[in-house]
Batch of 4 targets.
Target 1
Amino acid sequence: MKFHDISPTLSERIGVFPGDVPFSRAVSHSIDEGDHLDLSCVTTTLHVGAHADAPSHYVGGGEDIGERSLEPYYGPCQVMEVAVAPGARILPSDLQAEVEAPRVLLKTGSFPDPENWNGDFASCSPDLIDFFHDSGVVLVGIDTPSVDPEQDKELLSHAAVARHNLSLLEGLVLGDVAAEIYHLVAFPLKIKGADASPVRAVLIEE
């Protein structure tokens, strides 16, 4: 088996949505400074790097991430490459292949450097989310910070995800993986009440 790590490195340099809480790590004990162990803590938005959105992020009274079933985050997965104009919403007609797996990750290349924020990344159209649901998809992932545009306040694609109770992965790094079928492992942390969780997303190639 070959493992493809599709998660960006979390550090103070990683970009987050404008106005959100940036990632920071504070060291309270250090072996290099004479302590008997290393000990540190982090402060960050839960929507940092590769992460799973919970319904509570976009629906009042929705499930928090600790309540979500783990099944959608594990299993056969298809990487689909798409090419759209900067800032565009991806339509079903933009797909270059048929849906062949119940988990789909969209490789847009429109957010190439997680440490340098660009707001004109590609996102999903509600029609695309509806199409994936009708095709038997249970999880949609994307290599951008969101399935909706940066300035969108209506969150139309998140609303479509909510209608179909799909699972979401955002902030993936797919530049080095081919548009093929893999096995996805991307479990969120069991954080009570949380609207999202960072994940260590991995594609397994057999």
Target 2
Amino acid sequence: MKYIPFFLLLILFTSCLVKKPYTTQNGYIFIQNDERSEKEWKLVWKDDFNAAELDTQKWTKIPPNGADWGKHMSNNPDCYSFKNGCVYLTGVVNRDTLSDSRPFLTGGIYTKGKFAFQYGKIEICARLENARGSWPAMWMLSEQKKYGDYPRNGEIDIMEHLNFETKIYQTTHSYYTLELGHTDDPPHGSTAEIDTAAFNVYGLAWYPDELEFMVNGKTTFTYPRVADADASQWPYDQPFYVLIDQQLGGNWVGRIEKADLPVSMIVDWVKVYQ
């Protein structure tokens, strides 16, 4: 009979005593434990994009949809590449309009149905290329639709960038802001200056009573839960999944300039803490 050394037994026993900072639902939804906001963040999920292809256990390529942001989404290989430990999500001029009549195609990934979390901190390290009509975004939507259809479950925009601007937009959207019109009480968004030639870390610390937006570890905007507001002001008490996409065109960003394409959002890594 073989015996396990005592120090290995001790390691195994100790590891069993270490409490995870979350509980899981359905095997992929990470719910932060109570009182974790007062403790040190622990890494619970990440992707370094060091492989030669997308990790389909974590991500799905975003399919096209009728929204302004999603009408050019595609799984075309021209829109995805992996090099230097990064994923390139790219907007291109469509080279084959016979099989797909859309003039432009672009890449995006999301964790819907594969990873979602409630409360914690997310950081995304990326570099944003510039083009007329470029609209890269990092954002979050509800996984379970606790309050019904959009916009009742809210939307958290960690980062949006337009064209050649040197600033990003960080915003919250909900029934409270979009339908009831409460965009200033409290302010539902702000901007932050960035260097688009550099990799920056875009972040969100999500608490039961506040959304804290960050760039390179510095707080840039906060959105609080308001105690006496309409209940629709705070739909952020449920799991959300992550979307990262190099969008093109739309009413907000304006026309697309073919001569500026291809354009990419180059993502180095994504990390989630609780």
Target 3
Amino acid sequence: MSIVEKIGLHALHRFDPETAHGLSIKALKLGLGGRGGPVSTPRLATSIAGLNLPNPVGLAAGFDKNAQCLAALGRSGFGFIEVGAATPRPQPGNPKPRLFRLDRDAAVINRFGFNNDGMHAIGNRLALRPERGIVGLNLGANKDSEDRAGDFAQVLRHCGADIDFATVNVSSPNTERLRDLQGKQALAALLEGVMATNADIGIPIFLKISPDLKDAELADVAEVATDAQLAGIIATNTTLDRDGLKSADASEAGGLSGQPVFEKSTRVLARLAGHTPLPLIGVGGVGSAEQAYTKIKAGACAIQLYSALVYSGLSLVGDIAQGLDTLLARDGFANVSEAIGIEREALAR
């Protein structure tokens, strides 16, 4: 991390978390941030669900909810980017405050509630996206929708022509009863509608799941996703668990992300890899090259991060990609794909 980035992060942390995040988005829109583009080597270049990635380090949904800074993020080292979640209609989300930094835990709690500009505004920005780079959209449902399952297909239908992949997000804990859609029958019906819509679009569709699923629920989700012929599963979203936290805001309601989620989400990832042949993307607590490598050894074909950027800045992306390349070379792998799942059984325990 450069001295300029250190000063910038220190300054941002003097603001409340949501204001600081808004300022970081504005800075990226003004052209600040990375300059070099994705880090890539023959060892890091990989493919997942037909998407050719320069490296397997992606940006998780939630950072750029409204697809406002795609060009700047594309220059920041990521192998792929996911924006959103987008809902059919704009919605303000939950009342503020709704974002909390847990500095002592290197973690974040949010209860945003799918605040976003809606699929029309987001779709307009995606239509103007840079030609290069892999960009996906996280699909959401409006809080007051009478047909939440139908909302996902509606957003896909509107934005599908301008994205490279889409993610069905039924795992956010901040929209009441949304996680109920992870139940076997409800999920099967939802995915049937999404995949029917995608028949005319033809992009990879992923499913993002909760780290709080029990083993039987995880097996059900894997079965439904496999039967639906999804492109893959993203494991995992934020957790409601609060075990071991030290920060003052630890009891705030919402989804917890960052370092405390790493072990739990990695264990879910490894167990999920034992239930399905679908490609997996590992998310949850990735803040170093070593942690990214652990996700891959647990069964991930690629990883995503977000919360670590709050504490380490955008330079972390390149550091993780370069560090991952070094670790793979140390262990004798010619390509990251060779390391996928090599420690799955141990990490599933």
Target 4
Amino acid sequence: MTELTIRPYTIDIPQERLDELQARLAQTRLPEIPAGITDDYGVPTTWVRDLLDRWQNGFDWREWEAKLNAFPQFMTEIDGQPFHFIHVRSNEADAMPLVLLHGWPGGVIEFLDLIGPLTDPVAYGGNADDAFHVVIPGGAGFGFAGPLKETGWTTKRTAQAVARLMAALGYERYGTQGGDWGAFVGPELGRIDAEHVIGVHVNAATFGFLPFGELSEEEHAALTEIEQVRYARMRHWDDDLSGYFKVQSTRPQTVAYGLTDSPAGLAAWIGDWFRDRQIDLDRVIANITIYWLTNTVASSILCYYEDMHAGEWPEYSTTPTGVANFADDVAIRPYAEMMNTIVHWTEFEDGNHFAAMSAPELLTQDVRAFYRSLR
């Protein structure tokens, strides 16, 4: 296996790309809304209109570009695919390497508020013994690495690429943390690189942490009160909110044309998952802008199709696993224990699916607590 060539990288979007985006935003055509339309039909037009107005008239991409460039960034190539990642080493001698894995529709921007507290805990009121070296891969076909060059990027292939990256960085023992799709890749990384992965921490966990299908009356009655709430939330998602999942796992290329050509369409498709979730609107817009400027929304959604058609079923993981369940998460411990070695489980009343942005302090505290016994 060839060694990876790693080079420094700085984000520098040409001004003409930003001007082209502004021109498209100025030509937005929104749908006519018939009487009776409610939020149950999808993301409200008023919310999209407000987001588009902010995107065109108040949002400053250069500010967010500078925020990202404040951290050391790098580019490499793994398995024929460009890989962008942030890598921040702690000044603490005994810091532990930790790879942070984002979900969809997110990116490296999710973790900006975690980098400081994780790498320099003392400066944030923590203990030096909890320090981490942080690696944040952008992922195949996401963000600044650009669109995918070929299909076949399943969760397992992505985990293999991350394992190669961590080895190339010289990390022989490391932990993982991931939410949403990162909670797919993290556990898989613990399986395929168990010799080096000392622990897997997840939030917004679904596959591998839930029952499959509907529960019987007896199974439902055996759940605790909070587990019944999470199960009901899961059924609601499956019945009423999973349209994007079904489209992206069956016809991703069809929806990709509209998402790639229309800023308004992209904003509605992605923004729907961030509204009412205590996340700053400019951060939401910055995330959407990255998908637009890098032309990666089409390749980013392919992970759904690839995994649903891979025909692979993961084995039980013996890697110590910790779960942080935030206010609208759905993981249920008895079912998570069927596929994972659960050694840590925290239930939170605050935060949400995007905990790294909505509750970074709570997520940081839980990551620290989980890894204290594994260092």
